[in-house]
Design goal:
The structure holds 4 protein chains of 4 kinds. Chain A is of the alpha+beta class. Chain A has helices spanning 2-10, 14-22, 28-34, 38-41, 46-53, and strands at residues 61-62, 66-69, 73-74, 80-86, 91-98, 105-111, 118-123, 129-137, 140-150. Chain A has a domain at 58-152: SoxY domain (Immunoglobulin-like), CATH 2.60.40. In chain A, the strands form 2 sheets. In chain A, strands 1, 3, 5, 6, 8 and 9 form a 6-stranded mixed β-sheet that branches. Chain B has a single domain, classed as Sandwich (Immunoglobulin-like). By secondary structure, chain C is mostly helical. Chain C folds into 2 domains: 3-80, no CATH class; 86-203, Cytochrome Bc1 Complex, Chain D, domain 2 (Orthogonal Bundle). Chain C has helices at residues 3-13, 19-24, 26-38, 54-61, 68-80, 94-102, 121-124, 144-148, 152-163, 185-196, and one strand spanning 39-40. Chain D contains 11 helices and 8 strands. In chain D, a hairpin with a 2-residue loop joins β3 (202-203) and β4. Chain D is mainly alpha-helical. Chain D is globular. The chains are: A alpha+beta, B mainly beta, C mainly alpha, D mainly alpha. Chains in contact: A-B, A-C, A-D, B-D, C-D. β6 (105-111) of chain A pairs antiparallel with β4 (55-62) of chain B.
Chain lengths: 157, 104, 204, 283
């Protein structure tokens, strides 16, 4: 995402990266991969995570074409399966946020080429929470969310 | 050394269902060791990529919320037998692991 | 504690083969011998946990279905040992009771001595309608106070049930929380409040 | 990588079952309003399990176990190729399904884990004390034994469970296991039976197999050893029995002891004839 790249360019090592970019030595996606987006992933709230992703200001539009398939009740918060499929044309990235986790942002996926804009993954959930997914398509953000209840296990572990 | 990934690519028509299992503790840094009571330092995969025949098609970044021994699934169109997937992850210790599979 | 007394009582009064029966019962004897050889103390879980008391001995020996005379005798003995709360003050704080009902921790070798022992209630019982993850080994206790009221008899009965379930049903699956010392008087009062308090989610 | 049609079949079955449960739940109650009903909760839990069923991290452990099996290790720098799991030296396929059984060279009834330990001791020169020191993996400790067991049991997928009961020692192990299963003790008066002798019961949301009924034993036993989701670890039967005693508030059974092997024998014999289908994913 552009704002993310701007952020990286502003932070440490930016000058060298800009130089390499200018020289065409690195593809932009490689630059992104070389730098874990700490401000977004380490944010303790959703707003901060969105800002870190560069989606802070943008008003995400709820979309039925962005589907989050997950059980409404998880037997164990240590492993909660999620399947996210975007039918929104030109989807280039999907982000997954678990609102009540100590650090809400769980993953960010950038798609290109023949990779379809969908992903399945398994996440930890600290407690019952809304799970929000965000898709970037044609410069606009779309969102979809679902509450997943996390239940207590037997025998006190 | 990190254990190898398990990568499975199943073809239905020209759409590949790509599943990957990674061996990684995915420690959040928020837990305490049951024996010593000391916090267990964070240790988790921060990013991974998928390349199809050498060209990157996915750049992913992950947080500590991804479950232990991560499992990811993707779908790709226009795939044929003989295509090669290379998956590479890097964790917060800088450790990295790359494995590949050829579509049968 | 009371194993010798009980064994003596049932041997003398009922003419039943209590302790000798255990010695004659090859399967139980072999199992105990193997356990004493193959288990080791760890953390708070010492080998003394393999020393059976009268209730355990009898329930083991008769596969949880002892002769009725023996059952009545031992139940009476267990009931006589129930300690009721000071001043008939049965009800504590339901919020603390809820935390206890939710907790299944305590007394395992991995818990360590500092871990507070929970009431384990939700492992086996349905209680508040808001808690989806409840067990079914025990009966549903949903709306317990609302359905049954709060008569002194019921308070006393319920207290005894939590304190020592074996006082009313000798080989019940339910632990003897008070009798074994797993829960103290204050904790049982909190769990009682969770069951009876009109404000408790059990009754809402 | 082998395509796994059996796995796909299993998943389809699970999804079908989950689908049926969802339909039942919807029939029972209007969905959505307020707290989910017990049936709705169950249906969602089934869906949760179905979504997890396809990719089992146990495969990662099995791959590492295979590597360990073939690598010369220990003071004697030997691989386990000479290890006789009961079907002859080096034969892994189907061997797990025929354990526990009597091993004349060791003079004991052994489960698969005890046998692997025997091979590590006799062929590779590891000390019994080292093997037993930390057999179960945790966040800071990878267990070689768990990986080896994952490899060996995976090689019994599709084989019928068939522990031998020909010898008196094998029958004695079964009888002892059966007695231990019923032994009530400890501060909570628990035995294995307390939780595992009735139909259709559960602790919290976890269904409890009635292990006094063959049908349930078969279903439970053919899924173990298993990947435990709650712990993010592959777990063996020795671990399973050990952790049951922990929750029973008993002292700890010694690793590979006669008591644990007897309980595994009891379950294996009750499961005789069922097809091994593990390692499964468990909560």
């Amino acid at each position: 995402m552009d704002e993310l790249r701007r952020h990286i360019l502003k932070s440490g090592g930016g000058a060298a990266l800009a130089l390499l970019l200018g020289a065409g030595l690195l593809r932009p996606t490689r630059v992104l991969a070389a730098n874990w987006n700490a401000p977004a992933f380490e944010s303790k709230d959703v707003a901060g995570a969105l800002r870190g992703l560069g989606a802070g200001a943008a008003q995400a539009q709820a979309s039925a074409d962005l589907k989050l398939d997950a059980p409404e009740i998880a037997e164990n918060g240590a492993v909660v399966p999620l399947e996210i499929v975007s039918k929104i044309p030109n989807t280039s990235a999907i982000a997954v946020l678990i609102e009540k986790n100590p650090q809400p942002l769980a993953g960010h996926f950038e798609f290109s080429g023949p990779l379809l804009p969908q992903v399945s993954l398994r996440v930890k959930m600290a407690e019952t929470s809304m799970v929000r997914v965000l898709a970037l398509a044609g410069g606009k953000y779309y969102s979809s969310s679902k509450e997943i209840k996390v239940t207590a296990g037997g025998c006190g572990g | 050394m990190a254990d190898p990934m398990k990568i499975r690519a199943r073809l239905a028509g020209d759409v590949a269902d790509l599943r990957v299992l990674m061996a990684h503790p995915m420690e959040t840094g928020q837990r305490k060791d049951a024996r010593s009571g000391q916090p267990i330092p964070p240790h988790f995969i921060q990013k991974f990529s998928i390349a199809l025949n050498g060209t990157h098609v996915l750049e992913a970044q992950t947080g500590m919320a991804v479950s232990r021994n991560p499992v990811f699934g993707f779908k790709l169109a226009g795939i044929k037998a003989g295509d090669k997937f290379t998956i590479t992850w890097t964790d917060n210790h800088g450790e990295t692991r790359s494995d590949e599979t050829v579509v049968a | 504690m009371s194993i010798r007394i009980s064994v003596a009582i049932c041997a003398l009064l009922l003419g039943l083969p209590c302790a000798p029966a255990l010695a004659d019962d090859a399967a139980l004897r072999t199992a105990l011998e193997a356990a004493r050889r193959d288990f080791e103390a760890r953390g708070p879980a010492g080998l003394d946990r393999l020393d059976l008391d009268a209730v355990q001995t009898v329930c083991n020996r008769w596969a949880n279905n002892p002769p009725s005379e023996l059952q009545s005798l031992l139940q009476a003995e267990q009931l006589a040992a129930v300690k009721y709360p000071e001043g008939g003050n049965y009800l504590g704080d339901w919020k603390k009771g809820e935390a206890l009902a939710q907790s299944g921790r305590g007394l395992t070798w991995s818990d360590g001595a500092k871990v507070a022992t929970g009431g384990n209630c939700y492992n086996c019982h349905e209680l508040a309608s808001t808690e989806l993850a409840y067990g079914t080994l025990g009966p549903s206790l949903a709306r317990y106070g609302q359905r049954r009221g709060r008569s002194p008899d019921l308070l006393r009965y319920t207290w005894a049930k939590i304190y020592n379930a074996k006082a009313s049903s000798l080989c019940s699956n339910m632990p003897r929380f008070g009798h074994s010392g797993a829960l103290g008087e204050a904790q049982i009062r909190h769990i009682m409040a969770y069951l009876f308090d009109p404000q408790s989610p059990v009754n809402r | 990588m082998k395509p796994s049609s059996r796995k796909t079949g299993r998943r389809a079955q699970k999804l079908l079952r989950a689908g049926a449960a969802v339909a039942a739940a919807l029939a029972v109650a209007g969905a959505g309003a307020g707290q989910p009903t017990a049936a709705e909760t169950q249906a969602e839990i089934e869906r949760y399990r179905a979504m997890l069923a396809e990719d089992n991290p146990a495969e990662l452990y099995a791959a590492r176990g295979e590597e360990l099996w073939n690598t010369p290790r220990g003071p004697k720098q030997a691989a386990l190729a000479g290890c006789d799991l009961g079907l002859g030296p080096g034969v892994v396929a189907g061997a797990y399904a025929q354990t526990p059984r009597w091993f004349a060279d060791a003079g004991r009834v052994m489960d698969i884990e005890a046998r692997l330990a025997w091979c590590m001791e006799t062929l590779q020169g590891f000390s019994a004390a080292d093997i037993a020191a930390r057999p179960f993996g945790s966040e800071d400790h990878k267990s070689d034994m768990e990986a080896l067991v994952a490899y060996v049991v995976t090689a019994s997928r599709g084989y019928p469970i068939a522990p031998s009961q020909k010898l008196p020692q094998e029958r004695a192990a079964y009888a002892l296991g059966k007695s231990l299963f019923a032994l009530r003790a400890g501060p909570y008066d628990f035995s294995c039976q307390t939780c595992h002798s009735q139909d259709g019961k559960r602790i919290r949301l976890q269904e409890l197999p009635n292990l006094t009924r063959r049908e349930d034993v078969r279903r439970a036993y053919t899924g173990w050893p298993a990947y435990r989701v709650s712990q993010g670890e592959f777990r063996t039967m020795q671990w399973r029995i050990n952790d049951c005693f922990r929750q029973q508030r008993f002292p700890q059974p010694k690793y590979l002891s006669e008591t644990v092997n007897a309980l595994i024998t009891y379950l294996a014999v009750e499961a005789t004839g069922a097809t091994y289908n593990g390692p499964a994913m468990k909560r």
